[in-house]
Amino acid sequence: MKARRFIAGALALTLTGCTVGPHYKRPSTEVPAQYRGIVPGSENQSADPAFAEMKWQSVFQDEALQALIKEALTNNYDIRIAASRIVQAEASVGIARANQRPALSGSFGIENDRIPGTRVAPTFYAGALAVSYVFDFWGQFRRATEAARANLLGTRYAAYVVETTLISEVATAYFELRQFDSQLDFSKRSVVSDQDSVRINTINYRGGEYAITDVYQAQLLLQQAEAEVISLTQSIEQTENQLSILLGRTRARLPEEWLSWIKRI
Question: I want to staple 204 with a disulfide (CB 3.0 to 4.6 A). Which of 118, 150, 171, 209 is the partner?
Fold first, then answer.
């Protein structure tokens, strides 16, 4: 009798003590209520949402930029990959949870045999129904479900990071393109002005009023302005290529309607 009790107690301890993996507990962290050096009176302005929590539509109110971001979120391949990974993670959670439930399977068949030498052909019907259930004594399926849920949360966070990074890169490239366009317009005007300076200095040099160094200096400024135009043109093309990649476009350059829209702003 004592031996039976001992065996039963050992079995109970085995079943309760051999759970696969420890229970996860989020580590406790102490976060200060506010930053040091905060502006007096700003702690009462908690009604406004933090900048990091604002929607990108509220941060970027430029219509052209909003259209570019929407197109990037729709066509960018990194976003598509992240979305497909979320679907896969959700399916993995469903599969892991299904292992904790009973499995029901059934089969049905019909067999018709003709007896040799007779016209008798009896028909036999066969059916079977089976129920199986694996008791999760050691918590294998429970830990697998927890791992699948953690993987799902990580996948969703990764997709959020991809989306935030994509929006940031599109906005950065967009503002760089506008900056290059403005600088290119200024450089082209500088080229025209420097050409006039070269012409005037050449006339004055031929008239004996200026030295030859004045003509050389004007020509040097003109060459610098022309080189700046070439450099800015290359930068604009590179930025357009970068935007095209972010937008998932097959062609390298942006369409003319987008370029005209950007330059009108």
Answer: 209
CATH of the domain at 73: 1.20.1600.10
The angle formed by the CA atoms of residues 47, 50 and 51, to the nearest 5 degrees, is 140
Kindly report, residue by residue over 38-88, the tens digit of the pLDDT. Answer: 666 655 555 566 666 778 788 888 888 888 888 888 888 777 777 777 777
CA distance 231 to 225: 10
Residue 93 φ/ψ, nearest 5 degrees: -65, -45
Cβ contact 219:202 at 8 Å: no
Residue 115 lies in a domain: no
Q: Answer yes or no: is 18 within a domain.
A: no
- 174: containing domain: 62-100+136-264
C-beta separation of 13 from 131 below 8 A = no
